[in-house]
Amino acid sequence: MTKAKFVPYRDFTEMPAADMRARAQSFRDTMALRRSVRQFARRPVDRSVIEDCLRAAHAGPSGANMQPWHFVVVADPAVKAEIRKGAEEEEREFYSGRAGDDWLKVLEPIGTVPLKPFLDDAPYLIVVFQKNYAIAANHHRQNHYYVPESVGIATGILIAALQHAGLATLIHTPRPMGFLRRVLKRPANESACMIVVTGYPAADATVPVLKKKYFDDVVSFI
Ligand SMILES: Cc1cc2nc3c(=O)[nH]c(=O)nc-3n(C[C@H](O)[C@H](O)[C@H](O)COP(=O)(O)O)c2cc1C
Predict the structure, then answer these.
(1) Residue 109 domain-assigned?
(2) Residue 213 falls inside a structural domain
(3) Does ligand 1 have an atom closer than 6 angstroms to the CB of 112?
């Protein structure tokens, strides 16, 4: 006999088929315009927009409902500068050998370099932490399940929400990311997995010309 309690699912509104198609197309068009932006304007963005996008991310599904995430929103210029310093140290190592030739080769068309001015310029760095386990009230470890999958889904929703709200984003992963836990004073059961950089693109921002796989090569219907 399950111990779960159930309530009627009333938060679902069926919409006319034409509306459903129009909404799917509109969202497709919005997301098709997303690019990773690496030059941000030093313009402020209303914090409530960021909060709402994070609420959308936090509504995501998670393995065994453990919600194994924590998002640190960094707007303080001094903390952003510390993050930039740590990231550039790791990135210098990465580009001068740690990455290995294969990785550097596929990064060539993207044109990324160790300098990361966007970490100072963008109004918000949202640092995504995965909570690898929780500490229960009796000091025992509570395992978390499907942590990378859950955090990846939540971060995907966050990027979609920011794009939908009219902001640009970049996923930045300056590895190893241990410095982020130190700078942001997060506990030992968490590890940083991504920085979502967000704000307005700089007026003269450019993006690399990249080849994308065809839709039919990545989707099969059976
Ligand atoms: C998990 C992940 C890690 C990434 N890490 C970095 C990064 O550290 N620095 C960077 O400039 N871009 C990073 N990117 C962005 C990718 O380079 C970018 O998504 C890819 O080149 C495709 O370009 P587009 O996003 O403009 O379509 C990352 C993307 C993902 C999903």
Answers:
(1) yes
(2) no
(3) yes
Domain count, the chain: 1
Domain with 192 in it: what CATH number? 3.40.109.10
In a domain, 8, yes or no: no
Domain around 55: 37-203
d(CA 89, CA 15): 51
The closest alpha carbon to 148, from 184, 193, 196, 186, belongs to 193
CB 145 within 8 A of CB 53: no
pLDDT in tens, 76-134: 999 999 999 999 999 999 999 999 999 999 999 999 999 999 999 999 999 999 999 99
Q: Is residue 154 part of a domain?
A: yes
* Model pLDDT for residues 187-212, shown as the tens digit of each residue: 999 999 999 999 999 999 999 999 99
For the chain, where are the alpha helices, taking DSSP H only? 17-32, 47-58, 77-93, 101-107, 118-121, 147-164, 178-183, 215-218
At residue 20, φ and ψ (nearest 5 deg) are -60, -45
For CA atoms 40, 41, 44, 49, give the dihedral sign: negative
Atom of ligand 1 nearest to the CA of 91: 8
Residue with CA at minimum distance from ligand 1 atom 16: 36
